Amino acid sequence: MGVGPDPARADDVDEAMRTLARAHFLPPEQRARAGEDHPLPLWHGQTSSQPSTVAAMLRLLQVPVGARVLDVGSGSGWTTALLARLVGPTGQVLGLELDARLAAWGGLNVAAWEMPWAVVEQAQPGVLGRVVPGGWDRVLVSAAPRELPQALVDQVADGGRMVIPVRSTMLLVERHGAHVEVSTHGSYTFVPLR
């Protein structure tokens, strides 16, 4: 599997972002600014990532229909909903958010779109991700650790991919059996991974 984006899936990303507009996943006072291409504040220092960054990450992730996807730092639920749209009803998406209030609100935002194959739950403090048998086909991380967390690398399934900002560099992690390949894809700013 190459690292270049699949044009068909890139079109799917555009369609998902049109259907699941960012405004639906912002606090009322931020909705008028939804079209601005920069992060917008949610609360407790959390942000809604800028749309061009979200699109770039989703294209890099190359989410197939039917995939099992982990969304770490799901925030308002926007990325969880976008991932749910990409995997379709034969897939599964778990959004994890550490902030309890944000996780509850993000969960309601996702539930409003009637995609029961996607949920947002509160992350367990001190635990990165959620271990599942066989691992996750795709992992999206929307907060930046200081170094690549082995705990999340270990949760990527064989043939799977993870997109994660480390410090300020976007990384694509691809697993091929025991071999893990890491490539860099530009510079971005994210809130710290806690």
Automatic annotation (TrEMBL):
Cellular component, GO annotation: cytoplasm
Keywords: Cytoplasm, Methyltransferase, S-adenosyl-L-methionine, Transferase
Uppermost EC category: transferase
GO molecular function, one term: protein-L-isoaspartate (D-aspartate) O-methyltransferase activity
Single Gene Ontology BP annotation: methylation
Cellular compartment(s): Cytoplasm
SUPFAM superfamilies, sorted: S-adenosyl-L-methionine-dependent methyltransferases (SSF53335)
Gene3D superfamilies for this protein: Vaccinia Virus protein VP39 (3.40.50.150)
Documented EC number(s): 2.1.1.77
Domain of life assignment: Bacteria
UniProt-listed PANTHER family: PROTEIN-L-ISOASPARTATE O-METHYLTRANSFERASE, PROTEIN-L-ISOASPARTATE(D-ASPARTATE) O-METHYLTRANSFERASE
Family: Belongs to the methyltransferase superfamily. L-isoaspartyl/D-aspartyl protein methyltransferase family.
Protein name per the record: Protein-L-isoaspartate O-methyltransferase
Naturally occurring in which organism (per UniProt): Cellulomonas biazotea
